[in-house]
TrEMBL record:
Domain of life: Bacteria
Keyword Oxidoreductase attributed: yes
Annotated protein name in UniProt: NADPH2:quinone reductase
Entry keywords, A to Z: NADP, Oxidoreductase
Cellular component GO terms, alphabetical: cytosol
SUPFAM superfamilies according to UniProt: GroES-like, NAD(P)-binding Rossmann-fold domains
Gene3D superfamilies per record: Medium-chain alcohol dehydrogenases, catalytic domain, NAD(P)-binding Rossmann-like Domain
């Protein structure tokens, strides 16, 4: 028997339906994974609402999970039945059992449990490429992170501190400000403040080389106004809606750069995926970055978790137990 959450039509959290589905068989190059934990990410909301288009309907959301290999398809040589594995970026995680391409899976090392792995793969690997590759954070940098108490944000601020940066974290409540301060954020700002003015004060007018923004429409102009000339705005999410802008704004504000990176692009090559995951595993095992799983839900209660996520009631990572 196998159960999954499926979306038959786009809409609110009530469109997430828990139902019995056939047990899948791995095709050549695939493995069958029995999930022990599944991660919740904002991209799951995008597939539920239709902002991101699924290949077909009904769709099983979810991009990240951890579990045990239960069967292997033809041609799979690097994995065997019983291996502990995790992945990110393969749509269809909200299920007890799912098949996934073997080349998208990585083995979970000793010292990392299923809950940690499910919580860190998408968010942690995203944080890795953001601070190591999209913009290589270095000692002496001052950076700003929107939604600093969220899943990616809480990992990103810790990693940036580990790399020697001064971190400005923007959050929505005093409680979240206290949380990110405990993670090492140097300046916790509230969304109700004049963020560019506070950045000018903190940097003595120098402004910032980079801003990390997962909020989207509501913060885009604010982010640009925090940058110094030739600064980089990294837009990696649309929590408040997609961004639309006239490119001439970038010229007017100081010949700025904007990029919209994705994990799938940065880990498209198998070697990059493995290197990114291994870097993440090492920084977590060292204790430099802690994965805070602050909410857990049974997978069948995915709708409740989506409501909490969209209303900004969550902090850190949320994991479904399977």
């Amino acid at each position: 028997m196998n159960h999954a959450i499926r979306v038959h039509e786009h809409g609110g959290p009530e469109k997430l339906v828990w139902e019995e589905v056939p047990r899948p068989d791995p095709k050549p190059g695939e493995v069958l994974v029995r999930h022990h934990a599944v991660g919740l990410n904002y991209i799951d909301v995008y597939f539920r609402t239709g902002l991101y288009k699924a290949p077909s309907m009904p769709v099983t959301p979810g991009m990240e999970g951890a579990g045990v290999v239960e069967a292997v398809g033809d041609g799979v040589t690097d994995l065997k039945v019983g291996d502990r594995v995790a992945y990110a970026g393969a749509l269809g995680a909200y299920a007890e059992l799912r098949c996934a391409p073997a080349d998208r899976l990585v083995k979970i090392p000793e010292g990392i449990d299923f809950t940690q792995a499910a919580a860190m793969m998408l968010q942690g690997m995203t944080a890795q490429f953001l601070v190591k590759r999209t913009y290589a954070v270095k000692p002496g940098d001052t950076i700003l992170v929107h939604a600093a108490a969220g899943g990616v944000g809480s990992i990103l601020v810790q990693w940036a501190k580990h790399l020697g940066a001064t971190v400005i974290g923007v959050v929505s409540t005093p409680e979240k400000a206290a949380l990110v301060t405990s993670l090492g954020v140097d300046h916790a700002l509230l969304t109700s403040e004049n963020i560019p003015a506070r950045v000018r004060e903190i940097t003595n007018g120098a402004m910032l080389p980079v801003v990390y923004d997962s909020v989207g429409k509501d913060t885009f102009t604010t982010s640009l106004d925090c940058l110094r000339p030739l600064g980089l705005m990294i837009s990696y999410g649309n929590a408040s809606g997609p961004v639309t802008t006239d490119l001439g704004v970038l010229a007017a504000k100081g010949s700025l750069y904007v990029t919209r990176p994705t994990l799938n692009t940065y880990t498209a090559k198998r070697d990059d995926l493995v290197a990114t995951a291994n870097d993440l595993f090492e920084v977590v095992k060292s204790g430099a970055v802690k994965i805070a799983v602050n909410q857990t839900y049974p997978l069948k209660d995915a709708a409740e978790a989506h409501r909490a996520l969209e209303s900004r009631k969550t902090t850190g990572s949320t994991v479904f137990t399977v």
